[in-house]
Design a protein that fits this description.
Length: 445
Amino acid sequence: MELPERFQAFIRSHALLSDPSSTTLLAVSGGLDSIVMAHLFHASGLPFSIAHCNFQLRGAESDEEAEFVSLLAASLGTPIFIKRFETTAYAAEHGLSTQVAARELRYAWFNELSTQHGFSQIATAHHLNDSVETLVLHLARGTGIRGLHGIPAKNARVIRPLLFATRTEIRAFAEAKHIMWREDSSNAGDAYTRNFIRHRIIPLLEEINPGFLHAAEQTMSRMAELEAINTFLTSHWWSENSTTEPDGSVRIALDKLSGVPHPGHFLFIFLEQKGFTPEQCRQLAAGLQGEPGLEVRSEKFRALIDRKDLMISSLAPQKPIIQVQDDDLMVRLPDGSKLFLMPTDTALPYPDGQTAIVVEAEKLVFPLLLRGWEPGDVFQPFGMGGQSQKLQDFFTNLKLSRIEKDQTWLLINGDGTAIWVVGYRPDERFRVGSAGDKFLKISIL
C-alpha cells in the first residue's frame, strides 16, 4: 500500500478526524515531515489550513522558511497563518529552555487559532521515528507503562496522522513526487538530547536489528493495549471496593488495599489525576499497616489514612471567622449549611445538642463567633459536671476522622467561652438553669 493510502487508513483506524468534512489546522514548519503532511492532506481532499511559527531563532533562515511555507500554501490553495514569536525573551522571562518556550508558544497560538476559526483538530507531523525516539528518551530517564507507548496518535484536539510512517518512507515519497522542503540546520548536530538519540542511539539499535523501528512500534502498541487493559481492570476493582460519600469524598478499606499487589503504584493509577505524586502514593502504601493519621496533600486534594479506611477528599478552604450579631435570625455558612437563632419563652423541649441547643439568653455576649477548631481549644462537655477537656481529645473519643474534625464548627461566646461544638455537644457552662426566663434556640441545618 502506498503512503497516501496508508495515511488515509491510519486516519480512519484511529478516528483522528471528528468528521471527514471538518477542517484541520496543520502545523507546518517547512521541514520534510510537515511539508509531506500538507501534500497528503491536499491529495486526500481533506480540508485544512496551515499555521507556521517563526520563532526567530536562526536569523535569516527562519524568515526564509516562513516565505517558503507561504508559497506552499499559495500553491495548494489553502489559507495560512504566520506568527513571529520573541522566543528567546519569553524563555528568559519564564525561566524555560528554548525548546520548552517554543512548545508553549506554538500550542497556545494553535489553540487560539482553533477557537477563533473553528478548527476541529490540530495536526502535527510527528512520525514513527519521533515516537521511537520518545520511547528511548523515556527509558533513559525512567518511566512507567505510559511512557512505553511513545507519542499518542491523538491527544485532545492534537492529532499525529504520520505516526505510521518512518522518516525514510516519508523522504522517499517526497523525492518520488519531487516535493521540495527546507532543512533545519539545528537538526544536524547533537546539541539536543533528542538529536543525540536520533543520530547516535537509534543507528546502534538498528545494527542489532535492522527492523528495530517497526519492532519498537509493535512493542509500543502492545504497551498501549496493556495499559488500557490495566486501567479497565483496576478501575473495575476500585468501583467495586470504594465508597463515595455524599460530600464527594471517597473511602476504601485499608485491608482491601493491603491485599493488592504493589499498592503504591496501584494508588498512583487513581490519584495521579488528583495531583498526587508517585512518592506520595508510596508513602501512603507504606503507611497502610502503620498508625492512623498519615496524610498527604496535592494542590486540591488530600489523602488520609484513618483507622480503617483511606479517605480521599477535596481540600476545604480554611474556615473563616463569622460574626453572629444579636439581631441575626439566620446565618449562612460557606459549606451551605445555615445557623438559625430563634428566641423562645421556654427551654422545653430540650433539643438533642447535635442539631440544636437551647441557652439562657442573658449568658450570651454578642457578637458570637463561628470558626473552625484549633489545636489547644478546650471546652466543658455537657454532662461531665464542668470537667474541662481538650477538643482534640473529645474528637478522639468520638473516633472522628481528621476530615470530620476539619468540617466541624465551633460557636464561641463574645467573652471567649465555647458555647457549642456544632453538631456534637454543647458546653456545660451554658446548661439551662432554673433562674432563666429568656432563652435562645440555636440550630444548624
